[in-house]
Amino acid sequence: MFKDKRILVTGGHGMIGRELVKMLLDRGAIVTVADISENTNLEGVAYKQVNLCYFDQCMEVCEGQDIIFNLVGIKGSPKMCAEQPADFMVPMLQFNTNMMEAAMKHDVEWYLYTSSVGVYKPAEVLREDDVWTTFPSPNDRFAGWAKRIGELQAEAYAIQHGKSNISIVRPANVYGKNDNFNPANAMVIPSLIRKAHENDVLEVWGDGSAIRDFIHAKDVALGMLHVVENKITKPVNLGSGDGISIKTIAEIVAQRFGKQIKWLTDKPTGDARRVFDMSRAYDCGFKPSVSVEEGINDTIDWFLDNKDLIDKRYNAFTKQ
């Protein structure tokens, strides 16, 4: 399906985007990456530096494309969610709405929208069809509603135009090479890796009892290709389907660096449990393959090999 197709990847400079771009190139696609960053360091692709909050720039990058993978997003810690909610919600509403509208105006063959685990209400198991009978978690309500609006926008086009050419994926907690290791807003796995590397003791918020569903970026990229190739239009969870405690994650990281763990039980831990029901993905023929221990060690290897690059990105961020 992808050979010789003109394919745009927004957010292609990011962790999932880099994996996806490599896979598309391997399949013979003609790839353009659109990102706000100055340089993707990716070979074999055209590159456009844009701010997708502006509709005219979205129209420009969508022109002439056959397939669009919209991966652009904003990641952040629970602290950032609580203290800077507008920094999540407003840009996401802008670039999600603008990109999908531009793609539809250019009549692309297929469009992939990247939603989020944040659309879900806390539950023992998160099932795709439960979203619209609930509200997002209070811990994720700003980002969660922004992502929900994108899903609703896709449904609106299907109703109005009498066809659907949009796939929706909801990744779980994603990690891997090229993750965000910025101490100010890193997610749990990169945050723990950096802290374990830089400190004598690994301090972890909460008591470690929170359960999460983690998936490696490589598996997310494969899942995205799968839903587009098979023209799946129902939202699809992309996770492992296995609940892993933060305690287990912290122990894997601490063992690798030879550090003791100090639990900060007075700090917030977020929702108690978030695990995906993966039945729809399995029924569609997709199943992730990277185990959490293998994935974390792979991420640590990349972190240690690219510490200078990571520090350069962090220094650039702090000067903004």
Notes on the protein architecture:
- This protein has helices spanning about 15-25, 55-60, 80-85, 85-105, 140-160, 190-200, 215-230, 245-255, 280-285, 290-305, 305-320; strands at about 5-10, 30-35, 45-50, 65-70, 110-115, 165-170, 175, 200-205, 210, 215, 235-240, 245, 260-265.
- The strands form 4 sheets. It has a 7-stranded parallel beta sheet, with helices on both faces.
- By secondary structure, the protein is of the alpha/beta class.
- The radius of gyration is 19 Å and the shape is globular.
- Strand 1, helix 1 and strand 2 (about 30-35) form a beta-alpha-beta unit.
- The chain has 11 helices and 13 strands.
- Helix 4 runs parallel beside helix 5 (about 140-160) and helix 8 (about 245-255) packs across helix 10.
- The termini are far apart.
DSSP strand content: 15-25%
What's the SSE pattern? EHEEHEHHEHEEHEEEHEEHEHHH
The helix tally amounts to: 11
Strand order of the largest sheet: 3-2-1-4-5-6-11
Helix content: 40-55%
Q: Please, what is the average pLDDT? A: 91
Report the principal-axis shape: globular
For the terminal residues, how far apart are their CA atoms?
41 Å
Question: What is the fold's blueprint, element by element?
Answer:
Blueprint lengths: L5 E5 L4 H12 L3 E6 L10 E4 L5 H8 L4 E4 L7 H6 L1 H21 L4 E5 L26 H21 L4 E6 L1 E3 L12 H11 L2 E5 L5 E2 L1 E3 H13 L6 E3 L5 E2 H12 L2 E5 L14 H5 L8 H14 L1 H12 L2
Parallel strand pairs: 1-2, 1-4, 2-3, 4-5, 5-6, 6-11, 7-10, 8-13
Antiparallel strand pairs: 9-12
Helix pairs in contact: 1-7, 2-4, 4-5, 6-8, 6-10, 8-10
